[in-house]
Amino acid sequence: xxxxxxxxxxxxxxxxxxxxxxxxxxxxxxxxxxxxCAQYGATVVMLDKEVRRAEExxxxxxxxxxxxxxxxxxxxxxxxxxxxxxxxxxIREQLGRLDGVMLNAAWLGAFTPISHYDTELWSKMIxxxxxxxxxxxxxxxxxxxxxxDPAIVFxxxxxxKAFYGAFGVAKAGMTAFCDILAAEYDDPAHFIRVNTVxxxxxxxxxxxxxxxxxxPQSVARPEALVAxxxxxxxxxxxxxxxxxxxxxxxxxxxxxxxxxxxx
Length: 263
Prior knowledge:
Strand order of the largest sheet: 3-2-1-4-5-6-7
Oligomer: single chain
CATH superfamily: NAD(P)-binding Rossmann-like Domain
GO molecular function: oxidoreductase activity
Strand content: 5-15%
Protein name: NAD(P)-dependent dehydrogenase, short-chain alcohol dehydrogenase family
Number of strands: 7
Organism: Thiothrix caldifontis
CATH class: Alpha Beta
InterPro entries: NAD(P)-bd_dom_sf, SDR_fam
Order of helices and strands: EHEHEHEHEHEHHEH
Keywords: Oxidoreductase
Number of helices: 8
């Protein structure tokens, strides 16, 4: 059952020898996913604009004895198609392969009614939350096509609601993007597993910024929610593709069984 994915724990070496690119890997959900991927053997390419925080996450991964990750500073708001092709080429030259892409980075700038929406803010949010993901994915497709068990996972967010504006439009676009990619690569000769995961609210700085009246302790920690992402990034997911898995809000005290493995 879908709910069981929250309790999924991979085998100790489930992601061994895999190279997985995680966007927004410096903090929040991206950091938790990056560390969990490394815990289970992956070499993680950590893409983020926040270099200092990314370096802190890098140190945590190395100090835990996991495979050394790679840092790739990049601001997805201003990056061009060439920047993403350079990223893919660097991965090919330095690491030789790419097995998975975790599209986690997101930015919700403001809750605003459409009638008052600032057009520049709209453009920036569409860029970060939708167009940049297209540019990155397109650049990485040749590397993924060469992998034995490639996967793309989208961090979903049900946000087609009042006042979500460009963020809601972008996330809906990402859902459609997943459907299109999954259909185009549901081919035995060129298969890429493509899915979205929406774990519900997570205790992140973006969540706290946008919901200042909410008690952060009432929201699950990112570390408690990583299991479904690991599942779809690894071989256990098999040929499951084109799925949009959505979970109910988890309690603040939730804990993932895999966290004990790292202790």
